[in-house]
UniProtKB/TrEMBL annotation:
NCBIfam families: PRK07938.1. Belongs to the enoyl-CoA hydratase/isomerase family. Keywords: Lipid metabolism, Lyase. This is Enoyl-CoA hydratase family protein.
C-alpha cells in the first residue's frame, strides 16, 4: 500500500492512494492519508490538493479482513480513529481539496469525498455507504453533504449506491467526464484555484468551514459511538465474518 504526495510547479499537490486490489485501507493507510493532507496544508507552496487513486476504484473503505484477523478491538479502534483523522484532515486542510473519483467510492471513501471542497468524477464512478451490511455506522455525515436528507436515508438503510452522474443535479459533483479525462478535469479545476492568491484562498477555506451549519467532526464521532455499541453487542463481528469469509477458528 502506498500513499504518495507530489507537488507540481504550479502549486497543485497531487495525493494518490494505491492499495490493491480495491483501495480498502488498513489502519495505517488511513493515518497515512491524514498525514499527507496535514503536510499539504502546512506547506505554504501548496495552493490546492487533488486527492485521487490508482486501481479499480477510488476507495472501498476499511480493510475488513485486517479487522477480522486481529484479536480484540485494537483494529476496530484503530480503523475508527484512522478514518476520523483522515476525514478531518481533508476537511481541515488549509487549502481546498479537489477529489477525483473513479469506479467505486464506498464507506470511508464517501467520508473522504464528502469532506472535500470539490468533486470531479468519471462516468463509471458511483457512491455508497454499505456500513449496515457490516454492522457499522458512519459516513452518513458525509453522504448528507452529497444528497438530500431523504435520499441519504434511503441509501443508508438499503446500502444502495448512486451514480456520480446522478449527483450532478444536486451540485455535489461538479462534473462527470470519461475515465481517461478524469485527471485532466481535476487538474483543470485545481489550476483555476491555484491561479488565485493563495493567501486569500487559505482565508476563504477557513471562513467557509467556520460558517458550515454542521460540525462534521463531532457528527461523525457521534455516529461512531453506535458502531462501538454494535461491536460490544457482538453484532458487527458476526456480520464482518460473513462478509470476509473468516473462519473463527483461524482468527
Amino acid at each position: 500500500m502506498t500513499i504518495t504526495s507530489q507537488l507540481r510547479p504550479d502549486g497543485i499537490r497531487v495525493v494518490t492512494m494505491a492499495a490493491p486490489p480495491v483501495n480498502a485501507l488498513t489502519v495505517q493507510g488511513w493515518y497515512d492519508v491524514a498525514a499527507a493532507l496535514d503536510e499539504a496544508g502546512r506547506d505554504r507552496d501548496t495552493k490546492v490538493v487533488v486527492l485521487r487513486a490508482e486501481g479499480r476504484g477510488f476507495n472501498a473503505g476499511v480493510d475488513i479482513k485486517e479487522m477480522q484477523h486481529t484479536s480484540g478491538f485494537e483494529a476496530l479502534i484503530g480503523a475508527n480513529r484512522g478514518c476520523y483523522a483522515a476525514f478531518k484532515a481533508v476537511y481541515e486542510c488549509a487549502v481546498p481539496v479537489v477529489a477525483a473519483v473513479h469506479g467505486f467510492c464506498l464507506g470511508g471513501g464517501v467520508g473522504l469525498v464528502g469532506n472535500a471542497d470539490c468533486i470531479v468524477a468519471s462516468d463509471d464512478a458511483y457512491f455508497g455507504v454499505p456500513e449496515v451490511n457490516q454492522g457499522a455506522l458512519g459516513a452518513a455525515t458525509h453522504m448528507a453533504r452529497l444528497v438530500p436528507q431523504h435520499l441519504m436515508r434511503t441509501l443508508y438503510f438499503t446500502a444502495r449506491t448512486i451514480k456520480a452522474a446522478d449527483l450532478v443535479q444536486f451540485g455535489s459533483v461538479l462534473e462527470v467526464v470519461p475515465r481517461d479525462q478524469l485527471d485532466d478535469a481535476a487538474l483543470k479545476v485545481a489550476g483555476e484555484i491555484a491561479a488565485k492568491d493563495t493567501r486569500v484562498i487559505r482565508a476563504a477555506k477557513e471562513a467557509l468551514n467556520g460558517i458550515d451549519p454542521i460540525d462534521v467532526n463531532k457528527s461523525y464521532r457521534f455516529e461512531q459511538g453506535f458502531t462501538f455499541e454494535l461491536n460490544l453487542a457482538g453484532v458487527s463481528d458476526e456480520l464482518r465474518d460473513d462478509f470476509a469469509g473468516t473462519d473463527k477458528a483461524t482468527k
